[in-house]
Structure formats: C-alpha cells, structure tokens
Amino acid sequence: MELTMADLLLTHGYFLWEDAKEREIMKPYPPLGLLYISAYLRRLGFSVDLFDTTFARREDLMGKLQAGSGGTVGIYTNLMTRQSVLDIVIAAKSHDWTVVLGGPESANYPDEYLRRGADVVVLGEGEVTLSELLPALAARGPHRLHGVPGTVFRDEYGQSVTNPERAQIANLDSIPWPDREQIDIQQYIDVWRAHHGMGSVNLITARGCPYKCRWCSHAVFGFTHRRRSYLDCADEVEHIHTTYKPDQVWYADDVFTIHRSWLLKFAAELKRRHLTLPFETISRADRLMRDEILATLAEMGCYRIWIGSESGSQRILNAMERGVTVEQVQWATKAAQRHGIQVGMFLMWGYEGEAVEDIAATIEHVKQCNPDIFFTTVAYPIMNTAYYQDVADRAVLSGDWAKVTDREYMIRGRHSRTYYRYADQWLRNEVAAFRLESEDPAAARQKRQEAQQAQRAMLTVADEVEI
Ligand code: B12
Ligand code: SF4
C-alpha cells in the first residue's frame, strides 16, 4: 500500500474516446456529482484524489488502480456506463480496493452491483454519506456498516442490508461549489471550442424535480426540489467567468425556469455584475408561459432552450402525466423564438397507448412548432420509474444485464424498431417539406413524397412486434 494514499479515489466510467457517437457530438461535461463530493470531503479534511476518465484511456485508470492497491474507490454510475463501471469494479477488486458506488444507476440496482463485486452502494446524495462512510469503513470494514444512513452493503453472512435513508442537504448554499480545480476544465473548454466555436462549463442552481413524468428517473433526489440562493449561484457564475473564461455555460438543472421570482432575481443580479454569459438550458413549456420569462432568459444570454415536448398528442402527454398541454409547448416554442432564443425539442416514440393518430399528431405538432433542432428516442423504461412498473410484465432485456443498459429493454407487443424508424423518417421528411415550402416548392414536393413513402412503409410493418 502506498504511504501517500488518499482517503478516497473518485472516478467514473465514461471514456469519450471509446464512444464513437459521443465523439461525433463532442459536447462533454464533467460529472458534477463527483466534483461536489470532492469539494465537500476536502473541506472536512479528507484527502481526495479524482481521476476524470472523460479524456483518459482506460489503461491509465487501470494502472492507477494497480499502483494504489488497497484503497477506497468511489465510482459514479449512470444508465450509460453500466458495463464500463462493472469492468472498473472487477479491476479494483482484483487489486484489493474497497469499492463504493453512487449516482442514479447503482441506486436503481444496488443488489446487482453488490453481487458483482461492489462493497457499498450509496443511495441519494453522496456528500454527507461519504463523510460518515469513510471513517466507518476504516474502523469496521465493509461488512458492518449498520447504521450508516444512505448505504446498502452486504453483511458478514452475505446478506444485503439497506440502511435507513439519508436526509437530504437542507441548505445547498452550505456546501462548497464543485471542485473544478481537481480536473482539467480547460480541456473540456478547448474541446468545445474546437468543435463548436464556444467553450462551455456546467453548473446547477437546484437539485431535484417535483414533477412526476412517469418515465423520468428520480433515483437520486426523489421528488424534492431544493434551490440554491440566487446570490450563491451568481457568485459561482462570476467565479467560473473569471477563472475559466468560457464562452458559455450550461445550467444543468432539471427545470431551469421552475421558480419565476428566483429567476428574475438571479437575472437582475447577473445584470448588476455585467455578467451576460451565453447559455443553454432545459425547461418545461408550462414554466415558460410568460413573455417576461423569455425576455429575461434572452437578456441573460440564453441562446437555446431545450424543451421536453415528447408527443403532439394530448392523450399521450396525459398518459405520461407530463402536466403540460400541446398548446403550451406550441406557445412557448414560438415565444422563445420571438425573443431570439433557439428551441431544441425532445420527442418520444412508442409510449404506452400510442396509436398511428398520435404519431400523426406529433408530426403536425412539430411542424406547428418548427423547433430549431429536435431529437427523437423510442421510450425505454428506467428501473424504478412509474413507466417501468407499467410495462414490467412485458419488458425484456435484449441481452445479459451486465452488458446492456435500461435503454435496451424491449416491450413485448409494442411495434418493431423498424416501425419507429419509419415514423422518424415520416416526421423528418414532413418537417423538411414544411420548411422548404416557400423557398423551394419542388424540393418540398419531393420531401412530402418521401414522407408519404415512409408513412406507407410504417403502416406495412404495423403488425410486426418488437418482441
Ligand atoms: C445535465 C444532464 C445531462 C446532460 C449532460 C451530462 C453531464 N455530464 O453534465 C446531457 C443532456 C448530455 C445528458 C444526457 C443523458 N442523460 Co442526463 N442528466 C443530466 C441531469 C439533468 C443533471 C446531471 C447533474 O449534473 N446532476 C447534479 C449532480 C450534483 O447530481 P448527481 O450527478 O446525481 O450526483 C449526486 C449523487 O448522484 C451522488 N453521487 C454521484 N456520484 C457519486 C459517486 C459516489 C462514489 C457516491 C458515493 C455518490 C455519488 O452524490 C452527488 C452529489 O450529491 C441529470 C438529472 C439530475 N438532476 O441529476 C440527468 C440524468 C443523469 N440523465 C439521465 C439520462 C437517462 C441521460 C441520457 C441517457 C438521455 C438519453 N436518452 O440520451 C443521456 C446519456 C448521456 C451519456 N452519454 O451519459 C438520467 C439517468 C438515469 C439513470 N438511472 O441513470 C438522469 C438522472 C435524468 C432523469 N431524471 O432521468 N444528461
Ligand atoms: S422529465 Fe423533467 S419535468 Fe418531468 S419529472 Fe423529469 S425532470 Fe421533472
């Protein structure tokens, strides 16, 4: 064992260079959760080492695990990184590390991860739990962690023990900002600049979302919503601006405009400090339903707002318990664009009960809104969501649990993937035709024909099921 070993090595399982799709997108952000934990533990006097895998090679992390045999490693997990994290767990265990996992994915599958070698899974926020867990591990080892709230572990008999829940941090201003000094933020900014002309840094102004969209994962923060004070957030933006000089920021909140009066105060404070930094963020249409909000966002520097539109069918939005109307999405999109803000839209195919009329309604809706960008996805059930419960008896993983993610669930009886591929082509061609209409009617006609072909092709495979 190294004499200088840190109390905790923090890392994650996301390696940009291993992911061809992400390399194409090239919009990496560091995992804020790890940076928050690092800052919190350091302030209490723990020594923390942080190995950011984003731009690293897997061999480098493996080398580090080999060199530091016998320490404690904490790994962030999310839906995308299951296989990668399991590889790290196996490597860490082979070098005698104690392995602690945290984040949304391991919270959804604590026993699966414990069975595959993890020693402890932390549920919920990591800061306070780790500050109690590290001394408990040092004093009692990994099998006698009874009474450490927010943890799941295996006792000496191999039985899984779930401790009581950890209380959430009531005052988010009381914890230090993310420990960005521990990683190479400049590399993130450089990569962003090289690929998008703008260097970006992420931050959050709140934790948790009180809405109950049935497919959304609330594994970490539950259904609470806690905000930081607008002054603390403005201080952090100022710090980011003076320290890293990015060209923009990304407010990685769940619903950035959820609290109107907070937003107005925050905007006024940034203005007072002459901090107009371009930014992107995500929100809900029903939380954008005033010109005042959109004007404020535009004045703050918002150049693109992402809206989860999901479907153009009110019936499906209601089934999702989205709490938003189609009209609200249409109004918010137009209003944002009127204020000079681009709109990015997320859409979902294949939700429970979706019929061909709902698909047609979604296509009409996207034409009506004419967002600047839109992304589609076929609905997938994340473990422990209400949607998962709805389809659990028909959900089949397309491979070994350790090798796939929750995105690979197939739903028995649902239309095939080919069907949704055609739905996508129908949508994209219709929207393209709509956009070409006035400037190039011939091209528009061509696109409309392609849309009709896609629609017909979709209908011909309507009887094929996913599984
Ligand atoms: C911003 C964001 C993104 C951004 C950028 C990601 C980034 N790196 O910043 C973008 C838009 C790219 C994105 C994409 C996706 N995302 Co996303 N994203 C988020 C979001 C809104 C914020 C993340 C964040 O910064 N949180 C703030 C920090 C402080 O919270 P935290 O990371 O959870 O950390 C705390 C705890 O988890 C814990 N903890 C964390 N690490 C560790 C480690 C240890 C050892 C311990 C003990 C504890 C611990 O302590 C931390 C502090 O309290 C979250 C929702 C959310 N509010 O968290 C979804 C979320 C993480 N994303 C999710 C999903 C599904 C996706 C996509 C798969 C969506 C898709 N269909 O494509 C993609 C995957 C992309 C990829 N390749 O990984 C899900 C994950 C569900 C799951 N079970 O894993 C979430 C939870 C959203 C949701 N509600 O469903 N995402
Ligand atoms: S989808 Fe957005 S609004 Fe709905 S519950 Fe999740 S974070 Fe909240």
Can you give keywords for this protein?
467 residues, alpha/beta, seven-stranded mixed beta sheet, 42% helix, globular, binds cobalamin, binds iron/sulfur cluster
What this model shows, in words?
This protein is an alpha/beta fold and 467 residues long. The protein has 17 helices and 17 strands. The strands form 4 sheets. A 7-stranded mixed beta sheet has the order 2-1-3-4-5-6-7, with helices on both faces. Helix 11 (291-300) links the parallel strand 12 and strand 13 (302-310). The radius of gyration is 23 Å and the shape is globular. The N and C termini lie far apart (51 Å). Bound molecules: cobalamin and iron/sulfur cluster. Iron/sulfur cluster is lined by residues 209, 211-213, 216, 254-255, 284, 308. Residues 209, 211-213, 216, 254-255, 284, 308 line the site of iron/sulfur cluster (SF4).
Bound molecules: cobalamin, iron/sulfur cluster
Mean pLDDT: 97
Cα Rg: 23 Å
For the secondary structure, the number of strands is 17
Shape: globular
Biggest sheet descriptor: 7 strands, mixed
Q: What is the overall number of helices? A: 17
Helix content: 40-55%
**Order of strands, widest sheet:** 2-1-3-4-5-6-7
